[in-house]
Amino acid sequence: MTQNWHIGVIGGSGLAAGIGLDSAQEIEVASPFGLPSSAVTTGMLEGVRLTFLPRHGPGHAVPPSAVNYRANIDVLKRSGVTDLVALSAIGSLNPNMVPGHFVAVDQFIDRTSGRPGSFFGPGLVAHVSLADPVCARLSAGLVAAAQAAGATVHAGGCYVAIEGPQFSTRAESKLYRKWGGDVIGMTAMPEARLAREAELPYALLGMVTDYDSWRDGDEADVGEIMAVMKRNVEQAANVLRALAKSLPKSRSASPIDQALEHAVMTAPAARDPALVAKLQAVAGRVLNG
Predict the structure, then answer these.
(1) For the residues of 46-105, what is the DSSP string, one character each?
(2) pLDDT digit string (tens) for 204-225?
(3) Among residues 83, 210, 218, 221, which one is catalytic?
(4) Which of 86, 147, 180, 205 has the CA that lies 20 to 30 A from 235?
(5) 106: annotated active-site residue
């Protein structure tokens, strides 16, 4: 079965104006999981519907640990998004991934703590597969789009998600390299987990801003990071435009569209009605069947 593309984008607060959406509208979308980071901005880009949500809210007021990841994914699902692109600033743990480069992440190591990591819970249990947490089709499209936009992009990389808001100690940074981490950031988890539970194909394009602190004498410098981020905003907008141009006219089904097909464990009679009601946007396809 085919359908129209509707690309959701979660990114930095300064990206919305730079995308250049046609017929852009800002819409407040309510979620039973609380307040999202912001209203969404929806419009058309190269004939494709695109809906943008600033992860840290207007003016970058929400720190990584306080982002309401569940509400953000829920409102994008309610907005009709079919696929989800995450744009994030990242530090590099890999000498080949230098500041200014882009990385299409394909794996994660989750070191966050205390963040609600699932839409499900007591009264409605579900287990989705997360072995391959990124949509290969969408990620490949981002790589091709970044190349078309003239960016240097790496196809694949392991993202270490840390709690923050502080950057890593030097010992931590060196440890993450030994674990096989290529890049490091503070926001991809539980974002990627929740996208899978919401049956949204997810891909993350990271923008390298610094070398973290694994190199002796180096440390993450906020001023330098902000300067690189500012340069990358225009490039990121160009990547999104190239992606929209490259998409086939209609969207064929993805296996991730059915991620919940056999994931719900709780028998219908034992399900918590209140949680079932909250999950109508995320999981209504399987809960109402």
Answers:
(1) TTEEEEEEETTTTTT-S-GGG--HHHHHHHHHHTT-SEEEEEEEEEESSTTS-TT-EEEE
(2) 999 999 999 899 876 666 667 6
(3) 210
(4) 180
(5) no
Separation of alpha carbons 143 and 147, rounded Å: 6
How much is the pTM?
A: 0.95
Tens digits of residue pLDDT in 229-279: 677 777 888 999 999 999 999 999 999 999 999 999 999 999 999 999 999
14 burial via Cβ count (<10 Å: 0-12, 13-18, 19+): middle
Q: Which domains does the chain have, with CATH numbers?
A: 2-287 (3.40.50.1580)
- Please identify which of the residues 212, 216, 218, 221 carries the catalytic annotation: 212
234 close to 100: Cβ distance less than 8 angstroms: no
